[in-house]
Structures are given as structure tokens and as C-alpha cells.
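Appendix B. Worked example

We walk through a single record from start to finish. Start with the input: the chain for GroES-like protein, Leucogyrophana mollusca, length 357.
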Amino acid sequence: MSTHTAIATTSKGVVDAIQVETERPPPGHVLVKVSYSAIGPLDTYMAVQGLFVQDYPTLLGFNVSGTVAETGSGVEGLVVGDRVAGFGLQSSNSKGMQQYTILPRTTCIKIPDSLSLEEAATIPDNFITAFYTLFDCLGLPLPTFPVSAPPQRADTPILIYGAGATSGQYTIQLLALAGYNRIIATASPKHHEYLRSLGAHHTIDYRSPGLEEEILLAAGESIDLAVDCISAEETLAKISKVMSANSSVALLLPVKEGNSFSASEGRQLWMELPPDRNPFAPTVKPIEVRTLLYETNEYMRDNLMLKILPFLLDEGIIKPNRVHLFDQGSLKERVEAALGFVHSGKVSGEKAIVKIL
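Next comes the structure step. The output line below is what the pipeline stores for this chain.
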């Protein structure tokens, strides 16, 4: 039996290198020799705090980039040697922090030569989250790229709170590409110029003492649609002050106690907004976004990674996140360093990428 090295959380607060079986891909799947994977907040919740872990050991890394090593029967459009990126979803054998991984064809894309494997590893989870949030959870009409006419609500002010986050960057890009022209982004000032280059029309310092007034001034009225990329108690409270009656706000789960993107020991995380923590008026609809369920939307399952993202990348009209690369020391040491970086809240406007091979 052939095996390979993987990095897993083996108990709360502990990660280790383990050996796992190198399986052959079943029908409709591909075996990928992994070059890079990403560490995101969900990895830290699992590895550092032991949250959302059903069994130990649990492998880490939802994003993958590398080369196709073998294809299962029925796989079309990919051959051995193709450079690919993919999204690992929930099964252990599809996670990225290992030397080989198995991905469903529906979550694996061939990447253009113009895109490095490091950059490619930043894309899948955030792109899927942004697309699913906008065009499923918030109910905006599905765009067909390239967009030939503006959407019906093109002039609707849309607030992206925490837009410097990697998911916020893709949310802005997709809104701009779909023809929306009143995108209001809150972020640290160091991100403002870059967010405007992605398509934001107004950028506001999230620490501004006049935040509410600045958002309303940019909107010209109250906000009907918002995405909270942080989804902490304090960010929800701030957003609640600018939402109109009968508006909708998407919350990228989990909801965090306090005011930070990261969740330190002892602070609560919720996969549903507790009624006693809901700051919104009864007529405002909070929508809880669970990215791992995006394939329940059959159109997105069949098109998002197979057609839409490849087109946008081939045309060079969507930008990957900036890379913060961890490539020093052993694989375990690289993963531990990336976990500490993300968990400490030091990550800002970039994706923590670990070199695997």
C-alpha cells in the first residue's frame, strides 16, 4: 500500500505529520500532486480550538493547487500533468495539506499558464464564497460573463463590510464584473486603493468615528444589500445602523463573539446567529452563508468551477489574492507557522499559502 505525508490536527491545539493511504481516484475524480495549499480561519478554528472537528485526526487545508497525477473514469477536460486548482470540501482525502489529494472534477479547474500555482491556491474557497453569497444567498440574478447589459438593480448601493478580507476582494470583483456600480467597501485605509482597482466605488475606513454617516452619504440613502465578511458582534451592530427596512445582509459564518475576525480561546463562535445577539430590526433579513453547502445549488455545482471560474481566469479578468508564502522548515513547521499567523489576526488582505512539495 502506497502512503504519503499529510498534516492533521490530532487533538485540540496539536497538529502533526501523519501517513495516509494514497488512494486511486474514483469515477469523476482526479488525483492531484499538491504543490500549495491555503490556511484559512476555518483551519485555525479546527486546529487551534478543536471546533467543528468530528473525529481525530482531521486533515487541514480547503484549497489546493498542483498537477494532475491520475484521473478517474469519466473525467473530461483534464489529463495527467495539467496544472490545477481545487476546493477540498469536507472529506479528509480531498484536503490540501498533504502530498496527494483526491478532488471531485466539479471542484477542480485547469489553470492558465499566466497564473502561478501559489496564486491559484488563493482562489477556490474565496471565489466560491463570494459567488454563492451574491448569486444564491442574496438572490442577485445570475450573471453571464461577459455581461452585455447592466443588471436590473445595477444602481443599488451594496455594502461590503470588511472588504479587505480575501473573500471581500472577490465579492467586489464579481459585483463589478456583473455590472453593479455602487459598491461601498469598508476596510483599513491601506487597502483602499487596491479595492478601488478591483471595482469598489467608495472606500471607507472601518475605524472612522463617522462610519455610519459616511456609509449613508456614499449610498445616498440606507443600504438594501450588505455582505459582512467579518461577521462579529460589533460589525453586525455597525451594519444594523445603516440597513433599510426589508433589506438583507449576508453573514459569512461563523458569527464571532466580540469584534474580531479571529476567535481566541474562550470566545464563542456560532453557526447560527443567536436571537439575543441579533442587532437587526425585525424587517431586516440576516442570511447565514455556509460555503460548504454551495453544491446544493445544482447550477453552481455544474458551472461555477467547471465553466465560470475557468473563463474568468483565462480572460485574465479576475485577480487572485495576494500571497503570504510559508516555505521554510519542514511541512509541519510551515503549517504551524501559517496557523499561528492566521489565528493571531496578522493576516491582512492576503492569503496564507503553504508550500507542500
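Two observations about the output. The mean pLDDT is 95. The chain has two domains: 3-123+320-355, 126-292.
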